[in-house]
């Protein structure tokens, strides 16, 4: 098991952490047995689980008292962002930033959330680490943060988008660095791969964040009784920020496309220059080669065959024709 730098986490199988928001405003951590024994009268419960752990899966399917269809949706391996109504609660699937994720090029991993008036369940894979939830928990434990179901959901959404914004800023810095490297002569293949990776990341990032915007829009217009006005206003602000992030992603994708086109044109121009040089070189040696070939034929009547200095004069002629060929090519503007 692992332990977060700020607070202990993952000390028991399947349970990352559990937080009880008491009616008197205090906050305390719970262990598995306390989670199993929890009653709504004690306060609002937030449980963060490892989705792919058997212990957590058994609890979600059984002791949690959830509808079987809801439990199945929470334990789904991968899902696009969405919002679904279940009785008086909401099933929310978001994508949060995990910089350590190696199985997703975007760095976005799924967060499954169930929230109603009494409790909130969040789930992520054991191998993932979502700093947005960890930061929110730290804030709660030091007396900052929400104390209501709607407040907790809106703060989760806000923290998730904060980290998405940081990820996009890093992508912008990466694309700017690629633009600065466009003039490099060496490392062309590496540069092409990096440009393609940046373009692909922008496309895949938008693929998940576009439906996430729709999910936030649904949340801010949902009529759940525990979703108060303040939480809806916060969700609207989160949605506006996500819209700006999507515009930034579109700009990044456009910049990466232009980079790719410029890079392709640069390579084509270099290839054309190399081809022109080879053509000019072939044109320079063609006349001397023709003369040498004619004089080298094994037939009678070759001029100078009996002349002792014929080879010297042939060399002088060949060397003299090369500057003449160069001058003709310059006049024709081929060089």
Can you give a write-up of this model?
The chain has helices at 32-36, 54-61, 68-74, 131-141, 149-180, 188-220, 229-295, 310-331; strands at residues 15-22, 27-29, 43-50, 82-86, 89-97, 108-115, 119-124. It has 335 residues and is α+β, with helices and mostly antiparallel strands. The protein has one domain (15-266): 2-Layer Sandwich (Beta Polymerase, domain 2). A 7-stranded mixed beta sheet has the order 2-1-3-7-6-5-4, sandwiched between helices. Helix 4 crosses helix 5 (149-180), helix 5 packs antiparallel against helix 6 and helix 7 (229-295) packs antiparallel against helix 8.
Number of strands: 7
Straight-line N-to-C gap: 70 Å
Mean pLDDT: 85
Largest sheet: 7 strands, mixed
Task: Name the CATH superfamily assignment.
Answer: CorA soluble domain-like
Total of domains: 1
Along the chain, the helix and strand elements come as: EEHEHHEEEEHHHHH
- How many helices? 8
Assembly category: single chain
Based on CA atoms alone, the radius of gyration comes out at: 35 Å
Outline: rod-shaped
Percentage beta strand: 5-15%
CATH architecture, please? Answer: 2-Layer Sandwich
Which bin fits the share of residues in helices?
A: 55-70%
What is the fold named in CATH at topology level? Beta Polymerase, domain 2
Question: What's the CATH class label?
Answer: Alpha Beta
**Widest beta sheet: strand line-up:** 2-1-3-7-6-5-4
């Amino acid at each position: 098991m692992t332990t977060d730098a700020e607070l202990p986490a993952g000390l028991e199988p399947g349970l990352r952490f559990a937080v009880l928001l008491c009616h008197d405003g205090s906050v305390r951590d719970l262990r598995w047995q306390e989670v199993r024994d929890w009653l709504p009268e004690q306060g609002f419960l937030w449980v963060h689980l490892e989705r792919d752990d058997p212990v957590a899966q058994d609890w979600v399917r059984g002791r949690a008292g959830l509808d079987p269809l809801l439990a199945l949706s929470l334990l789904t391996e991968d899902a696009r962002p969405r919002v679904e109504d279940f009785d008086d609660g909401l099933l929310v699937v978001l994508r949060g930033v995990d910089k350590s994720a190696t199985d997703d090029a975007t760095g976005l991993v799924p967060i499954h959330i169930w929230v109603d008036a009494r409790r909130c369940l969040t789930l992520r894979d054991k191998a993932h680490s979502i700093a947005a939830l960890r930061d929110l928990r730290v804030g709660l434990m030091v007396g900052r943060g929400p104390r209501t179901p709607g407040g907790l959901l809106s703060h989760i959404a806000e923290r998730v988008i904060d980290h998405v914004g940081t990820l996009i800023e890093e992508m912008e810095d990466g694309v700017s660095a690629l633009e600065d490297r466009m003039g490099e002569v060496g490392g062309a293949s590496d540069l092409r791969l990096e440009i393609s990776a940046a373009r692909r990341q922008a496309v895949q990032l938008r693929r998940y964040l576009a439906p996430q915007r729709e999910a936030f829009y649904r949340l801010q217009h949902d009529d759940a009784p525990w979703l108060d006005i303040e939480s809806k206003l916060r969700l609207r602000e989160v949605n506006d920020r996500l819209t700006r992030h999507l515009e930034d992603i579109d700009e990044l994708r456009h910049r990466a496309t232009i980079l790719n086109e410029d890079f392709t044109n640069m390579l084509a121009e270099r290839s054309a220059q190399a081809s022109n040089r080879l053509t000019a070189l072939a044109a320079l040696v063609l006349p001397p080669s023709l003369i040498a070939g004619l004089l080298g034929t094994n037939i009678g009547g070759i001029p100078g065959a009996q002349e002792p200095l014929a080879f010297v004069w042939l060399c002088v002629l060949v060397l003299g024709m090369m500057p003449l060929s160069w001058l003709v090519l310059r006049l024709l503007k081929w060089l």
